[in-house]
Amino acid sequence: MRLALVFFLLCITVTSLHGAEAKKEILVYSYHFKPPLIVDDKRKVGLYFDIVNYLNKASDEYQFDLVYVPRKRLEVMMQEGTFNGILLGVNPIWFKDRDRTKYLWTDHVLKDRDELISLKSEPFEFNTPKSLSGKVFGGVRGFYYFGINEYINAGNALRIDTEREIDLFTLLSRNRIDTALISQSTFDYMIAKNQWHDKFHVSDKPHDIYDRHILVPKDKTSVFEHINPIVKMLHTDTSWHKTLASYK
Predict the structure, then answer these.
(1) 184 to each of 127, 181, 232, how far by Cα in Å?
(2) What pairs with residue 104 in β-bridges?
(3) Does residue 248 or residue 41 have the better pLDDT?
(4) Are strands 158-162 and 136-140 parallel, antiparallel or unpaired?
């Protein structure tokens, strides 16, 4: 009887191991290294890790692993054909795929917007890029801000860049810039974390309002068909909404 029990447990273990090995690894790339999307890379804390964990719990076919890659390196990988994964948190317009013909795009994983922020003591209101005339604008090195890039490149305003989006708060506090472009998700997180509610002003009009999706190369159609229904589950999952709220 004891031998039969041992044999039974061994069968379960082998089957479980085989099932785990059968899961195919899929790299989930991201070039957004900022809270709340990525709060702590070492401890794997942040909304992007939460999304990947959600996919893993719902999938019996794939094992998803989040990997940070700088935007410029990512573009080189995509141009050279060495990009072998999916890309989290992006929008078709950012990859010149407005008609969604170059890549496959899941339903949105997050809704976000780009805010123009300033000090409350010197509030800035954005209407069009012309609002920046004579101003010093803060952005992230290598990031393209439609309309604003062109206006600044024409010599109508100055631009100071940082490596990290959260460093723009410091530039504003030190009066080195007049306004900065920061995503609403990051702004809300930093304001709540640091209790800066009375320090910064947000322009009534944002620079952009957009959805963040998962970009899937067309050679990974099976992956797309597998994860898109899971992504759609996020919208009605009350536990997911609680997760989102925990970062605000």
Answers:
(1) 17, 9, 22
(2) 216
(3) 41
(4) parallel
